[in-house]
Amino acid sequence: MRHLRLTRQESRNQTRQRLCDSAQAVFMKKGFAAASVEDIVKAAGYTRGAFYSNFHNKVELLLELLRRDQETIRAVLHKISGEGATREEMEARVLDYYGKLNHDRKHCLLWMEAKLLATRDGRFRVCFNVFLHEKLEQLSAYVREFSARAGTPLPMHAETLAIGLMGLLDGVRFYHVLDPLHVTEHVAESVLSEFFARVVLGRRAERADDAAPILRKPIC
């Protein structure tokens, strides 16, 4: 069977994709600070030359990963509120989405690494804040849309509510990563879906139940 030869741009896109995939895995395993360019190219099966022909440094690659994740989130939210979706369908989709966000461990850890770097690197913080502001504007817009379709007034400004929702998402996912025995997937899912259902949609989430975590004193 004859294989089609990739164009120069297709080959470049493939190389960038493999570098991004490898970097994501390496950042998860070693952390951004400890990961080296050598670690990334070794995992991708490339040379340092291939890396530097696509990215200036690790920071630029990290920003590319954040940009791609941001685009994925935007596409998912757009699909949730797509044309023709009824209020009931949209509510079910958004509750399912926010309830299961904690399952996506690799992207959660990616943003944690970026936040740590932003606290230490002022130049990176400027770039990172662009992503945060975009997420806030995007989430605020969807909160207003969900509220309008559900016919329930928001208890506070959409921007304020979006900040709270972003903070809750980060916190719940962080605790799930740290202590999955007690903050289980079921608990995290219930917290997130219940919050959105009550505060944004003005009702109780159908899946909510007695999912309170059992907190035990850790043995050190």
UniProtKB/TrEMBL annotation:
<keyword id="KW-0804">Transcription</keyword>
<dbReference type="InterPro" id="IPR039538">
    <property type="entry name" value="BetI_C"/>
</dbReference>
<dbReference type="InterPro" id="IPR036271">
    <property type="entry name" value="Tet_transcr_reg_TetR-rel_C_sf"/>
</dbReference>
<keyword id="KW-0805">Transcription regulation</keyword>
<dbReference type="InterPro" id="IPR001647">
    <property type="entry name" value="HTH_TetR"/>
</dbReference>
<feature type="domain" description="HTH tetR-type">
    <location>
        <begin position="13"/>
        <end position="73"/>
    </location>
</feature>
<dbReference type="Pfam" id="PF00440">
    <property type="entry name" value="TetR_N"/>
</dbReference>
<protein>
    <submittedName>
        <fullName>Transcriptional regulator, TetR family</fullName>
    </submittedName>
</protein>
<dbReference type="InterPro" id="IPR009057">
    <property type="entry name" value="Homeodomain-like_sf"/>
</dbReference>
<feature type="DNA-binding region" description="H-T-H motif">
    <location>
        <begin position="36"/>
        <end position="55"/>
    </location>
</feature>
<dbReference type="GO" id="GO:0003677">
    <property type="term" value="F:DNA binding"/>
</dbReference>
<keyword id="KW-0678">Repressor</keyword>
<keyword id="KW-0238">DNA-binding</keyword>
<dbReference type="Pfam" id="PF13977">
    <property type="entry name" value="TetR_C_6"/>
</dbReference>
